[in-house]
Specification:
- It is built from ten helices and five strands.
- It is of the alpha/beta class.
- It has a single domain, classed as Rossmann fold (3-Layer(aba) Sandwich).
- Helix 1 packs antiparallel against helix 10, helix 3 packs parallel to helix 10 and helix 7 packs parallel to helix 8.
- The longest helix is centred in the last third of the chain and has 24 residues.
- The mean pLDDT is about 95.
- Pfam families: SIS_2 (PF13580).
- Its EC number is 5.3.1.28.
């Protein structure tokens, strides 16, 4: 696997300075980033699933990727021109306000689909159904589970592998079934749920910052 660019690697350096305990997973963070970078460069997308607080984390990640995080992410000039040519009134507003996006979908956020599937089919397979429907080879599935053993995440990861997707896990320190299914598993060094979640946030913020720098920083 290729090495990180210096302007990208600096984010992991800063992360480990702020949270020294995460030094133990810096290599996994690098590997996860490179999987995401490759997917996005090849037109892929990120599917994310978690339960409870981890579902909130999934939504949080989507919010950082689908719009500007630290950067303004101005539209490319050619697409801005297309918008204005399409409709001068609405296109001008769109060209001034739309932001560059990295496609990401949180699988907890579709209540009509989720409740229909859970009512009609097997509830624990709800995330797996969405991975099957949305996913394609070259996409990435990020499963967030503090235990690493949440069954709906494991079924989704299995489906993702069968679809030819890469799988990233974000868990706690203990060995888990999800760890065994992942291309990369970031096992933050805590074992209590709330402490694990407290470390998940700076990890995925770091990943989002690196992706934004790669795809939207001028000169890249």
């Amino acid at each position: 696997m290729k090495e990180l660019k210096r302007n990208i690697e600096k984010y992991i350096t800063v992360l480990c300075e702020r949270y020294p305990v995460l030094k133990s997973v810096e290599n996994e963070i690098s590997k996860a980033y490179l999987l995401l970078e490759e997917s996005y460069k090849n037109g892929g997308k990120l599917l994310i699933a978690g339960n409870g607080g981890s579902a909130a984390d999934a939504e949080h990640i989507v919010g950082e990727l689908m719009k500007g995080f630290k950067l303004s992410r101005k539209l490319q000039a050619d697409f801005a021109d297309k918008l204005i040519k399409e409709n001068s009134e609405f296109g001008t507003v769109l060209a001034e306000n739309l932001q560059g996006a990295l496609p990401a979908i949180a699988l907890d956020g579709h209540p009509a689909l989720s409740t229909a599937y859970m009512n009609d089919c097997e509830p624990v397979l709800c995330f797996a159904q969405q991975v099957y429907g949305y996913g394609k080879a070259g996409d990435v599935f990020l499963g967030i589970s503090t235990s690493g053993n949440s069954k709906n995440i494991l079924y989704a990861a299995t489906t993702a592998r069968a679809r030819g997707m890469k799988v990233i896990g974000l868990t706690g320190a203990k060995n888990s079934k999800l760890d065994q299914m992942c291309d990369v598993c970031i096992k933050v060094p805590q074992t209590e749920t709330y402490k694990i979640q407290e470390l998940h946030l700076p990890v995925y913020h770091c990943l989002c910052l690196m992706l934004e720098n790669e795809f939207f920083e001028k000169g890249n």
